[in-house]
Structure formats: structure tokens, C-alpha cells
Amino acid sequence: MATWEDVQRIALAMPGTTERAGHGDQPTWRVGDKGFAWERPLRKTDLAALGDTAPTGPILGVRVQDEGVKSALIADDPDVYFTIPHFDGYPAVLLRLERIGVEELTELMTEAWLTRAPKRLAKEFLGG
């Protein structure tokens, strides 16, 4: 299953990506000035909202295209993907890093990067 080293390697392999400390000094990966993936430990309010379903272990937040994609990911694989009330109405999904394979993580992070990358950079990346 995926590790933080995989996340870092995948993110930094995409053009224009930088890594910097975000909220609480957790790493955030950005393209230009827009974040597309970040470490997102659960806070007390998240734990209270999730109750007994609150996951343990490392959690990654990833930007998605829209709420429909977010809902589809959660419906398709709720053992990996979830959300919290803080992200209601926001196009991002949380995932249990230890439950996702590197290939699926690469695809998800590439899509996240594409949602945030400048159009010219995204076009170059896609070979067009």
C-alpha cells in the first residue's frame, strides 16, 4: 500500500509542483499557488463527527474535479475514501493512505494536479 514517500515522489514528479508546510506544518503539494494534495490528520471535531467510523493511520486530502467525483469515489470504495463535514460543498476527498495502492494513488493525484495546474502546463503535461 502507499506511503508518504510515494505521495511525495508522485507529486514532485509532476511539472511545477512544490512541497511546503501547510496547516499545522503538515506537507502540502501545490502547482503554482494552488494546493492539490495535503496531509490531513483528523481533528477533534472530525473525530466527533465521524464517531466510531473515524479512521486511524495516515490521511491524505486530495482535490477532485467536483462534488460528483467525490461522491463517486466514496460510494465506489468507502474503505479507502471518506469525507468530513468540514469538506461539505468542497471538491476534495480524504483517503486512508494505507488502503490505497500506488497505481490508484498515482491516477488520483494526477487528476488532482490537473484540476489545479495552469491550462498551458496541463496541456504540455498531457502531450498536447
UniProtKB/TrEMBL annotation:
Keywords assigned by UniProt, alphabetized: DNA-binding
InterPro entries: YjbR-like_sf (IPR038056), YjbR/MT2646/Rv2570-like (IPR058532)
Pfam families: YjbR
Highest rank taxon of the organism: Bacteria
GO molecular function, one term: DNA binding
SUPFAM superfamilies: YjbR-like
Keyword DNA-binding among record annotations: yes
Protein name, as recorded: MmcQ/YjbR family DNA-binding protein
Species annotation: Actinocorallia longicatena
Higher taxonomy: Bacteria, Bacillati, Actinomycetota, Actinomycetes, Streptosporangiales
